[in-house]
Each structure stands twice: as C-alpha cells, then as structure tokens.
Design a protein that fits this description.
Elements (H helix, E strand, L loop, with lengths): L17 H17 L3 E7 L13 E7 L9 H6 L2 E3 L9 E5 L6 E7 L3 H15 L1 H17 L4 H18 L5 E5 L3 H14 L17 E8 L2 E11 L3 E9 L8 H15 L4 E4 L6 H5 L4 E2 L17 E4 L10
Parallel strand pairs: 2-5, 9-10
Antiparallel strand pairs: 1-2, 3-4, 4-5, 6-7, 7-8, 8-9, 10-12, 11-12
Helix pairs in contact: 3-5, 4-5
C-alpha cells in the first residue's frame, strides 16, 4: 500500500452533530448496494464519537457474509460515487473512498469472522466512554494535522503509538495481518529479519520492500507485532514464501501454523494456485507437517546456500478459504 497519491490537506475540525445523520443516510445506500451479503453497517472512526474532533470524513464498516462477493458489486458502489481501492494494505478487507477532491466517506468492508471488526468497535466504544483519552486523542490529531498538513503517512505514524495503547486498554485480543506501513511496523520487519534469518548485519534484500512483486505483512496479536512474512509473486499464479517468522516470545504458542494458514488463505483469495518454499533445515519438517510436498522450481533471485536444497510447495485449493482466524 502507498499513500503517495494522498496530497489533500489534512483538516481536523470540531465535532459536527450532522455526522451521525450523514452516516445513517449513506449506510442505507451502501447496505442496499452490497445486497443480501451485507449483515449490518457500523459507524466507526472519530466522526462516530460525539464531541470528538475529526477529519470530516465518515468512516463506515459494513459486515458481510463473504468478502469475495463484494468484488461483484464494485460497479454498483461506483454508481454511488465510490472508488474501489481493493484491500489497501489490510488483508481480507475491501476499501472504498468517496469524493476525489473533497473526501466524504471511507468504506471498510470485512467478513463477519474478521477480528478487525472487533478492533474498530472496541476503539470507538472506548473513545465514547473515556473522555480523558478522547481529549488526548483530539489534541494529538490537531497537533499532527498542523505538523503534517499534506503528509497522510506522517499523520498516521504520529497516531500509531496512541492507537496501539488504546488497543491494549480496550481489551482487543485478536490477530491482524497488515501490509507493513508505519515506522513501527517497518522497524519490526527489520528486527525480525535480522534476528532470525540474516547471518550478516547487512540485509541485501531491502530492495524488495518497495518492489511490486514482493509483499511484506506483519502479524499482530492485539497491538503487538508478533510475526512477519515476506511473499514474492511469480508468473503462472505462483508465489514464493521467502520468510515467515514469529517473535521468540510467541514461538512456542503454535502461532506459526495460524499465520501460515492465513497467508495461504490470502494468496488463494488473490488467485494464486501454488505456494512454493525453499526451507532451511530447521523449518523443513514444519512445512512438511502442513501439507507441503517436494515441488521443484527455478529460483534465480535469492541465495540458496542457507537452504537444504529441497524445494517444496503446496497447491492452494478451496480448503484454504475455509481457514479462519
């Protein structure tokens, strides 16, 4: 995900009581557009918290039965003035924005089993019931808007630590997979790569951080980054798992298996048919135990000296879509 195209001025204004009415009106339209797949639509974000200053953009969270079905109504959403942005950095989400020059609405669509739903609602409800934290959040946003008037990434980086603190306070305990974006996330990426896979202090593959055929996901437990995966996209609907690592503190909790299954599910959603790996000697048995078999493939991009030379893979099938968090 990139915010490079976000050049609008960041404006944080006083709470407007009309925001709740604007949500109700738009929620009816969006629910109708999403059809019977849509279960409900929540008002989230700062405009959903009475008295809290906010960017004047209504954030909405429709909950659906099947996230992939949302792609079939893209043109209907476009007829309402929305631009489809795909996942936009958060796995298993569909994101829509309305208002090209003057943004008015953001739509975050999630499937009913997705932990992100709970995270958004817990944050909103905490802000509604804890005045002190809401006031601190308002002050922070005003300061960031003044400091980064045209830099949405700087604005998001500035909010990151505060939001993580509220995630801890409000009791959110779910898992999340997001594309590395904030400074904190990229710091976690570098640390996990260094401590677990790199023999030298120099990471020769940081070029992949911005390459279109590579994606770097961080895996959250609550507000803490506990894992990281590096995937590379190949031709013929194939992907290579370059690195999957869990923080040492969580290593013995079985989280690797959950993370791997979610990566398989995500790739299946993207249309990939095979996930290939050239594992180290230490991780070979782990992947074999998860259904991977010998599957040779050409790998010209990476040094193979740290592997045992056995290339394995897995055919991604509809079973991947049945895997939940």
């Amino acid at each position: 995900m990139s915010f490079s195209d976000e050049k609008r001025k960041i404006e944080v204004i006083e709470y407007d009581p009309q925001w709740s009415k604007l949500f109700e009106l738009e929620a009816k339209r969006v629910k109708q557009a999403l059809g019977c797949n849509c279960i409900m639509v929540h008002h989230i974000g700062s405009t959903s918290v009475p008295g809290l200053c906010a960017k004047p953009i209504i954030d909405m969270l429709p909950v659906v039965r099947d996230i992939q079905e949302v792609d079939k109504v893209t043109k209907v959403m476009e007829s309402l003035g929305y631009e489809a942005k795909g996942e936009y950095g958060i796995a298993f989400r569909r994101f829509f924005q309305k208002g090209k020059n003057t943004r008015t609405h953001n739509i975050h669509v999630y499937q009913e089993d997705d932990p992100e739903i709970s995270r958004y609602l817990k944050f909103r409800d905490w802000m509604r019931s804890h005045t002190g934290d809401a006031e601190s959040y308002a002050k922070l946003k005003l300061e960031l808007a003044a400091k980064f008037p045209h830099d949405i990434l700087g604005y998001c980086n500035g909010k990151d630590a505060f939001v993580a603190k509220i995630d801890v306070k409000d009791g959110f305990d779910g898992y999340r997979i997001v594309q590395a974006l904030t400074d904190r996330e990229w710091s976690a990426v570098r640390n996990l790569r260094q401590q677990s896979f790199l023999k030298s202090k120099v990471d020769a593959f940081t070029w992949t951080f911005t390459h279109k055929d590579h994606i770097h996901f961080v895996f959250y437990k609550n507000a803490e980054v506990v894992g990281y995966v590096h995937l590379q996209f190949l031709l013929e609907n194939r992907a290579v798992l370059r690195i999957l690592v869990i923080d040492k503190h969580y290593h013995n909790l079985g989280i690797e298996s959950q993370f791997l299954r979610l990566c398989e599910r995500w790739l299946y959603h993207q249309g990939f048919k095979k996930l290939l790996i050239q594992p180290s000697k230490e991780t070979y048995k782990f992947y074999i135990g998860h259904g991977y078999v010998e599957m040779p493939f050409k790998d010209l991009d990476f040094d193979e000296s740290d592997s045992q030379g056995i290339k394995i893979g897995k055919n991604l099938t509809i079973d991947c879509n049945l895997l939940n968090y």
